[in-house]
UniProtKB/TrEMBL annotation:
EC number in record: 4.1.1.20
Residues modified as N6-(pyridoxal phosphate)lysine: K72
UniProt record, GO biological process: lysine biosynthetic process via diaminopimelate
Cofactor or coenzyme needed: pyridoxal 5'-phosphate
Protein name according to UniProt: Diaminopimelate decarboxylase
Lyase among keywords: yes
Pfam families per record: Orn_Arg_deC_N (PF02784), Orn_DAP_Arg_deC (PF00278)
Catalytic residues (UniProt): C368
GO molecular function: diaminopimelate decarboxylase activity
Protein keywords: Decarboxylase, Lyase, Pyridoxal phosphate
Length: 429
């Protein structure tokens, strides 16, 4: 995967295909037909890719952890349902995501609620709905959860989210070892444990650790998980009880840019025996449910964002392809969702022969801002009005992570392909 065309080609070969005429296929259906039927812009998700990815990760961590789906990555109930059918629980970050998970058929006791700013209304909804666990991130939230439990006459299972020390940090977006709004700092963990233990309506059952995101190196993830087991042992020692849940977060990454390689699940598997031995050797941890809750890793590779070309122009030596899709639907692809140095996601033409000449192409959207740029120099074949462009790795942090109201364009449809059928799971507009 030395350069962008190779990355795009590798991702298409792994998750999609092209027919003899060079038409991109999703689950055996021509992308051109999907665009004609459902209109553009369009998000298309391949359920078979989601299932294959989920099963591969479960097999890699078997005997150590179970795998849940982080709903924030793609909260469409039809997407959540795919993972629920595979056996996943759900990790949510709002009351609306709780409703989406329930709509997808996830049992409330298999839902975990994280996030640093849980409001009273959301807490009342999930407590009344029998949520499996709430992950506490600050003292005020601790009080709000206890009050909700009191109002509903129940005892709520809770875990502490811990912001770990510097030795546990890792991933492209580091979320540990520095000041953070997320969780209790590790050095304040004992005091937080004591505060929860003093609240009779709260039952401290676990740990939540999330040290980084978009991790592509197995050794980084394995190190974070080992650190998490150490924190879990400290919580169990402080409470004098065995832990029931050890949530080691998500953080598993996918390749977006040239030079990035996919996470090596074989290396993950090879590094687990020591972690499994740690669990089995400690009776306070041996019976705990260890859970990973990735979102991007599971849903991202299965999605395409599809836009239609409206115009092609040359400006002072640069080629611009203007499409009907842009940052208002896919902020991440524009580079405006957390990127410091803006780099291009892998892009592909909807129809492209194997020997098509490619040239650096800027792909822009219809918005009146220079920020609306899906690619700055993507290697693409010659394109004309009416052609299709697809942004790969678009199954996560797409539509709902974007400023859909900006300039008041209609939202795109979302379509799920499975078993040779295409189902509209969110209507256009």
């Amino acid at each position: 995967m030395a350069d962008a065309p190779d990355l795009a080609a590798a991702l298409i070969a792994e998750n999609f295909s092209r027919d003899a005429g060079g038409v991109l296929q999703v689950g055996g259906l021509p992308l051109t037909d999907l665009a004609e039927k459902f209109g553009t812009p369009l998000f298309v998700y391949d359920a078979a890719t989601m299932r294959r990815t989920y099963r591969a990760l479960c097999a890699a961590v078997a005997g150590f952890a179970e795998v849940d789906f982080s709903v924030k990555a793609n909260p469409n109930p039809a997407v959540i349902r795919v993972f629920r059918e595979e056996g996943a629980g759900a990790e949510i970050a709002s009351g609306a995501e709780f409703e989406a998970a329930l709509k997808a058929g996830v049992a409330p006791e298999k839902i975990l609620f994280a996030g640093p700013g849980k409001g009273t209304a959301d807490l009342d909804r999930v407590v009344a709905g029998g949520i499996g666990e709430i992950h506490l991130e600050n003292r005020e939230e601790m009080v709000r959860v206890a009050a909700a439990a009191e109002r509903h006459g129940v005892t709520v299972r809770v875990a502490l989210r811990i912001n770990p020390g510097a030795t546990a940090q890792g991933g492209a977006m580091r979320m540990g070892g520095k000041p953070s709004p997320f969780g209790f700092d590790e050095e304040a963990m004992d005091a937080a444990i004591d505060a929860v233990e003093a609240m009779p309506r709260l039952r401290l059952v676990g740990l939540h650790l999330f040290a980084g995101t978009q991790g592509l190196k197995a050794e980084t993830l394995l190190g974070q998980w080992a650190y998490g087991l150490g924190l879990a042992a400290r919580i169990a020692q402080r409470t004098g009880r065995a832990l029931e849940t050890i949530d080691l977060g998500g953080g598993l990454g996918i390749p977006y840019f040239s030079g990035e390689a996919a996470l090596d699940l074989g290396a993950i598997r090879a590094g687990l025996p020591d972690l499994i031995a740690t669990l089995r050797a400690d009776p306070r941890l041996a019976g705990a449910r260890v859970v990973l809750e990735p979102g991007r890793y599971l849903a991202g590779p299965a999605g395409l964002y599809v836009a239609r070309v409206l115009a092609v122009k040359d400006s002072r030596g640069s080629r611009f392809v203007i499409t009907d899709g842009g940052m208002h639907h896919h902020l991440a692809a524009s580079g405006n969702l957390g990127q410091i140095v803006k780099r291009d996601f892998p892009l592909a033409a909807g129809v492209e022969g194997p020997e098509a000449p490619r040239a650096a192409t800027a792909v822009v959207g219809p918005l009146c801002t220079p920020l609306d740029m899906l690619a700055r120099a993507a290697p693409l074949p010659p394109l004309a009005e009416g052609d299709l462009v697809a942004v790969l790795q678009s199954g996560a942090y797409g539509l709902t992570a974007s400023p859909t109201g900006f300039l008041s364009h209609p939202t795109p449809a979302e379509v799920l392909v499975e078993g040779g059928r295409a189902e509209m799971i969110r209507a256009r507009g």
